[in-house]
Write a structure and sequence with these properties.
The chain is built from 8 helices and no strands. By secondary structure, the chain is mainly α. The chain folds into 2 domains: 139 residues, no CATH class; 82 residues, no CATH class. Helix 1 packs antiparallel against helix 3 and helix 2 crosses helix 3. The longest helix has 40 residues. It is elongated.
Length: 247
């Protein structure tokens, strides 16, 4: 009976570690996508130290879980006590790190509010100054997502500008509609856009557009994180039970 119980724990642990392996692969994939994504999201990450750090933490956690899941599967199948102990200690550290990251994300969530981005935009945006990381990032985001400002073109009324003619408005060139949503895309009507003709401008704020674009992925990432934490907890329990059961 004891042998059957040990065998059951061994295969259950293998199953949990297989899910950890898959979870690590998913986090690794998401981390790589965020960092190399060509649609402009990587520039948002690069401009915000908190997001930049979070992306690399996700990448590192994914890589560690990927490796750990593989080692846990090997330790369970081979019934190797050394591997099981190493697995338990390593996954405990990862579990605590992920828990700390989740608590920090909850504490600093106010840094991602509409008001925060609006204040930062009005304070640091320098329009067509592509040597400035913040301005270049915002221009790329507005072009890529066909949006303007945080709430809309009115955000730029408080941003200093130097019009070339009396017809031009505070609306930056990045808010103009393009035939193709990229920096290489031709502006539909530049003169009309800069003169304040609304039909040639992107009027919707970037906050709403990006939130809608990533809403599904945020819930998916949250569900995945909760699932990974639960699986890690069960894997640690089974690792200790299997460790104690191996003669």
């Amino acid at each position: 009976m004891e042998g059957d119980c040990l065998s059951c724990m061994k295969y259950l642990m293998f199953l949990f570690n297989f899910f950890i392996f898959l979870g690590g692969a998913c986090l690794l994939g998401v981390g790589i996508w965020v960092i190399v994504d060509p649609t402009g999201f990587r520039e948002i990450v690069a401009a915000n130290p908190l997001l930049f750090t979070g992306a690399y933490i996700m990448l590192a956690m994914g890589a560690m879980l990927f490796l750990l899941g593989f080692l846990g599967c090997c330790g369970a199948i081979r019934e190797n006590k050394c591997l099981l102990l190493f697995f338990f200690m390593f996954i405990l550290l990862i579990f605590l790190a992920e828990l700390s990251a989740a608590i920090l994300a909850f504490i600093f969530r106010e840094n991602l509010t509409r008001e925060f981005f609006t204040k930062e935009l009005k304070k640091h945006y320098q329009r067509n100054n592509n040597t400035d990381v913040f301005s270049s990032t915002w221009n790329s985001v507005m072009i890529t997502f066909a949006c303007c400002g945080v709430n809309g073109p009115e955000d730029f009324e408080a941003v200093p500008y130097f019009p070339l003619s009396s017809l031009e408005t505070a609306t930056p060139e990045a808010c103009c509609q393009r035939e193709l949503q990229s920096r290489e895309g031709m502006i539909v009507n530049k003169e009309g856009c800069l003169s304040g003709v609304e039909k040639f401008q992107n009027r919707q704020g970037c906050y709403t557009v990006i939130l809608n674009s990533f809403e599904t992925y945020v819930y998916l990432a949250g569900a995945l994180a909760i699932g990974v934490l639960a699986i890690e907890l069960f894997a640690m329990i089974f690792a200790m039970c299997l460790f104690r059961g191996i003669q």
